[in-house]
Amino acid sequence: MPNMSYCRFENTNYDLHDCIAAIGRMMDSQEGPLSERELRAAKQLAGNALELVNMLADLAGLDIDDLDRHIDPLDDAIDIVQDMASETPVEE
Prior knowledge:
The protein is mostly helical. Helix content is about 65%, strand content about 0%. The protein has three helices and no strands. The chain has helices spanning about 10-25, 35-60, 70-85. The longest helix is centred in the middle third of the chain and has 25 residues, at about 35-60. The chain is globular, with a radius of gyration of 15 Å.
C-alpha cells in the first residue's frame, strides 16, 4: 500500500534509517546478505537518494559535481557490503 501524502516523507525517513542500520549491520557481520530482489532495490535506493540530493542542491544553487557519475561506484560498494554479509555465519 502506498504512503498517504500527509506522511510520505515521515514513513520514508523511518524506512531509510532502517535501511541504513541494516547496511551497517551487514558491514559489521551482524546480518546476512540481501536477496537478489533486495539487492536490486538497495542499488535503486542509492540512485534515487543521489537524484534527490542533486535536485535539491541544484535548487539551492550549490556548486556540486553531477552526482549521477557516482551511481556505478555506489552500486559497487553495495556489492562489497553484500559480499561482506555473505561471509556472516548463519545463526541456527
